[in-house]
TrEMBL record:
PROSITE patterns: RHODANESE_3. Keywords: Signal. Gene3D superfamilies: Rhodanese-like domain. CDD domains: RHOD. InterPro entries: GlpE_sulfurtransferase, Rhodanese-like_dom, Rhodanese-like_dom_sf. The lineage of its organism: Bacteria, Pseudomonadati, Pseudomonadota, Betaproteobacteria, Burkholderiales. The keyword Signal applies. The keyword Signal applies. Residues 35-124 form the Rhodanese domain. This is Rhodanese-like domain-containing protein. PANTHER family: FAD-DEPENDENT OXIDOREDUCTASE, PYRIDINE NUCLEOTIDE-DISULPHIDE OXIDOREDUCTASE. Residues 1-18 form the signal peptide. It comes from Inhella proteolytica.
Length: 125
């Protein structure tokens, strides 16, 4: 028997501390956001990956440096998109940031590998 989430929260209040899963946005949304300067897009790939090319306008902030550089992120209630190579790291990182109180963080579906596959432009950092 599967209990509804509300019942589970009553039985185990610690579950309430876990944030909802980080939502995603399509690659096209990230491209539009970069082109119009509407949202901050942070590329969390590592420097060796950045060397292959990045989406113009994305902020480079390697996942390995994120804990020491949290001050470079926008406020916890401001929109933020994370992108990595395939979406696995950005999805996990977005979830951790949501658990830390970042309410508007999302990850980009497909990541930079899909960006390049579509032939969209990249620049050298």
């Amino acid at each position: 028997m599967k209990l509804p989430r509300r019942t589970l929260l009553l039985l185990c209040p610690a579950l309430a501390l876990r944030a909802e899963p980080a939502p995603s946005v399509p690659l096209e949304v990230a491209r539009e956001a970069l082109g119009q300067g509407k949202l901050r897009v942070i590329d969390i790939r590592e420097p060796a990956e950045h060397a292959a090319g990045v989406a113009e306008g994305a902020q480079l902030l390697p996942m390995s440096q994120l804990p020491q550089r949290l001050a470079e992120l926008p406020g916890k209630d401001e929109p933020l998109l994370l992108i990595c190579r395939t979406q696995n790291r950005s999805k996990a990182t977005a979830q951790k940031l949501r658990e830390a109180g970042y309410t508007q963080v999302q990850y980009v579906e497909g990541g930079m590998s899909e960006w390049v596959k579509r032939g969209w432009p990249t620049v050298k950092p």
